[in-house]
Structures are given as C-alpha cells and as structure tokens.
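From the pipeline queue, job 12 of 40. The input is one protein chain; the requested action is below.

Action: predict structure.
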Amino acid sequence: MKTISFLTLIATGRHGGARYCILLLALFCVWTPVRAADVQSKAKQFDRYFRQLMKEKEIPGGAYVIVDGDQVVAMDTYGVRVRGKRAKVDPHTVFRLASVSKTFAGSMAAVLAHEEMFDWRDRVVNYVPDLRFKTPSLSRELQVEHLLSHSSGLTPNAYDNYLEDDKPLSKILPKFANIDPRCKPGKCYGYQNVLFSLIEDVILKTTGVSYERQLRERFFTPLKMGDASVGWESFMASDNRAAPHVQTGRGWRATKVEREYYYAAPAAGVNASISDMAQWLKAQMGYYPKVLSPEVIQDITTERVSTQRHMRHRIWRDHLSHAGYGLGWRLYTMGDDRIIYHGGWVAGFRAAVAYSEKQKVGIAILMNAESRVIADLTANFVIDITGNGNLATAMANK
C-alpha cells in the first residue's frame, strides 16, 4: 500500500485528507487546553487537601509544587520556618531533602556511566578497596549498580546507627567485615544509606571531581536550581532555611540541625527549595535533555530489583500491581502507568517527589516536621491524576 504523508493529505485534499486533518487539528486544539484545565482543577483540589492536613496535624511549615510537562501548574507554601517565629516559608526556603537526595546520586552516576567514566558492572572494591564482607568473595561480587539499587543483599539499613551517632563513613566501613549479605549481590532488595553513599568514591576516583562539585556544575547551575546545595555547612549558611521539628507531648518543637546523615551525602545530603524541585521534576520528566538525556532517564528508571513488600503500604496497596527499584528511584506500576517516586525522612524533615511516567505530571512536597502526612498527600495526588482514585474521597475520609 502506498504511504500518503500527513502534509500530502493537507496539500492535495486526496481522499478527503484535508477535511480529515483539519478535524484532527481541531480535536488536538480542543484536547490540549481541556487536559491542562483538568490538571489545574486537580491542583486546586490538592491545595485544599494539603492545607486541610497541614492544619489538622499542626505542621509548622511546608511547600509543594505541581508540574505538568514543562510548566509549573501550582506552587505554594504553608506556615513558618520555625514554630513560634514570624518568618514564613516561601518558594526559596531551603529544606533538607533526606533520601530524595538519592535521586540526584542515581542521576549523576548515570550521566557519568553514559560518558563511560565507569561501568555499572565494575566491582566496587576496585574503587573502595577497604570494603570487605565476612566472606571476601561476596564483597568482590558487589557491583556499582548494586549500590544505587539497594541490591547488595545486606540487611536493610546496615550500620545506619553509626551514622546516627555522627560517625563518618571511614569509621563505619570496617564494620562490614563482620557481616555477610543475606543473598548474593543483585538478587534481593535491602535499603541502604552507608553502602549507597560509596558512589561518592566511585565518582571522585573516576573523574577527579568531587561529588558536590559534580552536582553543582552538572545539575544545579544548568537547571537554575539557585537554592540547592550539598552538606551541613551549606545548609547552615542559608539565611532562608527551614528549621527541623520533632513531635513532643506538647506538639512540634524546633530542634538543631543534625550532621549525621550529611556524612552520607549521596544518600541524604542535598538541600533544596520547592522552586528547585520544580526544575528537578522537569528534568526528570525529560524536558532538559542536555542535562538528563532520554537514555539516562531510561537507565535510572529501569528496574534492577523487585520491592514487592512496598505494595503492602496502606495507601498504595489497593492500586499497585508491581513495585521495584531502579537507580535512586522507586518504580510503582499503577494500571497502565508507572509512578517514579522517592520519599525522604531525616531528623525533623520530610520530603517526597513523584511523577506519572505516562501523564508527565509530577509533584514535590517539602516539610519541616517528621509527619507521615506527606505519604497521604503524595500517594493520593498520584492516585487522583492517574484516574485510580479521587482526592475528594480522600478528603472526605479524613
């Protein structure tokens, strides 16, 4: 059969082509603003839900952004930076991202791997020779991709307690000689912070450039993430930063900013504002291909290990058909869509970022309090925009 191009049909009008194409164009023009209006409507409803829960749980402060394609549909803030103080949270207030930092590490490593600085199958001991498991042969099987996919086989959160005691990684690394993985590397999932952060050594030894500088030059600057930084010192140097809050018998209390997980910078060391997170969402959804190419995005969102136990979460369980982990990202299958997601929790802060792979609609939420309410907000928004649920129902059930 002879192929007739779209432009030929318009030009010649053959087989009623001109009328058909005009109809298609008209339908497209009608569909696009309707979809945009639909996302805006859902964003307005989310704002009501956000404020309802923030007030109900007496969260000191927070912020959210909703991105549709390369456009910010909604960005707003709530409350104050420090409970009892007057300074309000604004779009440039800096929060700790906690484990949402892993999305930056996975992406940075993937950019460098695609530049052939190293290979995902490289042995970690080639870059971190001091790493040893109880059975030496198992440590030699650990590959770079196992670090970023939490598939080392170790018990979840191995030696995080030492991080919480303000021990640097150099003091924690020898401890791994006392334990062995539960399964061979690459075969099972176990969430890690210490091992995950060894990607910093891989990056430094293969590029000669520090992890912090890589993020600044390759991500923060080109994406115009003007408030973003790495580390405790950078966070404390910001004049517009949120204070961490912990729950007490008398409500939320501001507390000091702990250094602990900053020692594991790739796992939990990034700081950013909600304005920064808008840019990060756009990049992850493919709208800054010079920063994150389609090939890199495909790589970091390719499942490396199954995480089926995450399907039992009380909010997600009725909607997910599969759960896995890529490189710094959780991957949730919902109907014919996938949700690319990560949450973060560190002393006094919560963070979350998620987007629909099919719809190209995403959300980021930052809070200066250790409240589980962020999980309700993130999951219910995603369920709503994918057509698997309704925010009005979620609001009514509160």
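Job complete. The first strand starts at residue 61 and ends at 68.
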